[in-house]
Amino acid sequence: MKRVPPSAQMHEAVEMYARGLSTRDIEDALREAAGERLLSRTQVSAITDSLWKEYEAFRDRRLDAFQVQYLFLDAIFEPLRRTGTVREGVLAASGITLEGRRVLLHLALGSRESEADWLDFLRDMVRRGLNVPLSVTTDGAPGLIRAVEAVFPKSLRIRCWVHKVRNILDKVPEEMREEVRVYLAAVRDAPNLEEGRRLAQDFVARYERVLPSAVHSFQDDLEASLQHLRLPTGHRKFVRTTNLIERSFEEERRRTKVLPRFFDERSALKLIFGALIRAAARWQRIHLTQLEQRQILALRQELGLDPVPPKPGRENEGKTRASMRPGRPERFYSVRGTSSRVSRTPACVDPAARRLLHHHRRRMTDSRGQPRRFVAAVRDLDHLLELPVAPHRLTSTRKGAPRGAPKVCSRTRTG
Predict the structure, then answer these.
(1) Angle of helix 161-169 relative to helix 212-219, nearest 10 degrees?
(2) In this structure, are strands 88-97 and 102-109 parallel, antiparallel, or unpaired?
(3) Which residue, among 361, 367, 397, has the nearest Cα to 381 in the 3D structure?
(4) Model pLDDT for residues 266-318, shown as the tens digit of each residue
(5) Closest to 264 in 3D by CA, of 43, 83, 77, 413
(6) Total-model pTM
(7) Model confidence band, residue 204 (pLDDT cutoffs 50, 70, 90)
(8) Is the terminal CB of the chain with fewer CB neighbours within 10 Å at N or C?
């Protein structure tokens, strides 16, 4: 039987460990046909330390390359110590970029999932270059909510609908659950924010006397539960829940359920990281159309997350005259073509040139007289058309002017 090369043995050992096999199981799996062990448990432990190096590189990498629009935050609790039964939290963040990529952004220990833990977690991502996201989807943990509002105050904070519906239905009798579920789905899937608020009021009016506890749970943080209705329609089903992380947590739990507890924090983090990063590698890209991307950028400007760009064609307004040399007579050479800037203006225009200027302007504007293109050239033409008509026929002042170029007077402008 062909012997497995050492590099392949190391890779197989790391992959087996990341998929939940213990060092003893890996030792038993990597045996030759004759029964000789290829790797001992000590060697397997040393090899799997490469996962910790991968995690350290992942934890310290820059995040500038990811233009994250939708951010998702959640935590998973595991027994991280050899002694004791207390489960500690591991905080996780993933996102969807403007190109539709789903990425795992950060993973760190946050023992109690407190506000301080989440603040450190979020500020670390910001320090490494994370941009301000359009929305942040979370569950109802109070410390997490306060941390998000402190770090990303202008972003849309979205309350996870899976957690919310589960909490509401726990307070509803079994025979009414399907009915309530339908009304909740109507609120969640409303066409816009205003309609969602109206349907929410109808739900409260319908059930506040019959199911006061369920209605109280529904009204808790209701505005955050409706913020996904401000997003493009095709994105709402991805953004209104934390399922993007929850599915990865399910994969992690499947691999770690055979372990009663981890020996220490390091062994826990490297195994959780190995499971989550491999689950993230299988995430499918979301298709974002150009229209949806423009809607995202427009909403970012509306919320004040991005500066509003200047109007097209206005950035050079006022520079023409300011850039002219003082003491030089202002003369006109040609407006033939479109985008060439007029740097010297005439004192007057003859009738034939005026007709040609009108012709050029009609070609560059729509039926309402608004520029379709070449905004700067249209503005220059408007300035020329305001000049007085010359009383006699004049010739162009530019030598070698093209045939049909406007003929304007070369007198020095006064005033």
Answers:
(1) 170
(2) antiparallel
(3) 361
(4) 877 887 888 888 778 888 888 888 899 999 999 999 999 988 776 655 444 44
(5) 83
(6) 0.67
(7) very high
(8) C
